[in-house]
Amino acid sequence: MTTRHEPKIALGTWAWGDTPTGQVFGNYLTAADLKPVVDDAMAAGLTLWDTAYAYGSGESESKLGELLKGYSRDSYQLSTKFTPQMAAGDSDHEVADMLAGSLKRLNTDFIDIYWIHNPADVEKWTPQLIPLVKSGKIKRVGVSNHNLAQIKRANEILGEAGIQISAVQNHFSLLYRSSEEAGIIDYCREHDITFFAYMVLEQGLLSGRYDVDHPLPADSMRGNIYNAVLPQVSALTAGLREIGATQNASTAEVATAYAIAKGTTPIIGVTKAKYIPSEAKAMALNLSAADISKLEALAQAANVDTKGSWEAPMA
Predict the structure, then answer these.
(1) How many CA atoms lie within 13 A of 203 on its CB side?
(2) Residues 94, 86: Cα–Cα separation, whole Å
(3) Does 303 have pLDDT greater than 80?
(4) Rg, Å, the chain Cα set
(5) Quick one: what percent of the chain has pLDDT higher than 70?
(6) Distance of alpha carbon 26 from its chain centroid, rounded?
(7) Domains of the chain
(8) pLDDT tens digits, 108-129
(9) Going along the chain, which residue ranges are E strands?
């Protein structure tokens, strides 16, 4: 088994690429707004940063690259993605071309984890990673939003060149456990693949900051999706709060600790420095088997489908 030194939590920068009107998350953040986030995270040992060209057509990458300029390259890890739907044309170098742009925006000559963002065409896109790994521009290969059959097929293609997938990134939360049900998390555990869980807090739905009386931003995409189900998840958020009270932890910290307890590495989107200590707290929490069973029962009773519009079912 390979030993990799990476934090129990990665920090996501999807919201950093939001539009100036805050169309997706409800707020627009400048590099100056985000500088305290980066500085406090790096000081806390949260040094694995996840981004993508797709997050604002490079906007997120550019801000992250600018803010990490003051740190030595060996003090942090970068994770970014090739998104097939954003490829410029139909050449044999689409992945290399998108990677070149990411390298420039991130001010680096290599990416620690480079992902195929979704399985638009496993046979077409996966082979294009091989020369990039061999050149050293990519250290590790990941696949995101792939089901188990697609993960296995990508591994076969890479395996012919002596490369293997070392990371899978899928949507996973108390409310959306499709990757667990499909056997993907078990497969990752058996093959020394890190499973990165995104949307662990369901874009704030499970953060404890929102309820029927305090909805998500009404003019944002996440508000349009989640505000309607706030009544259904009230018992779950109450359960998270109760378990947290026994360990002086917040609702969000318990929801994050749950994802860690299930063998995943959560990717937590952080837009304010004040939330950085919360991630350290989540990493230190210990949930009992009874806690986990209670939360899963409450989540099932909520009967909410949080599958993203871009996702295909895993199971």
Answers:
(1) 22
(2) 10
(3) yes
(4) 19
(5) 97
(6) 19
(7) 10-207+262-280 (3.20.20.100)
(8) 999 999 999 999 999 999 999 9
(9) 10-12, 48-50, 77-82, 111-116, 138-144, 165-171, 194-198, 265-269
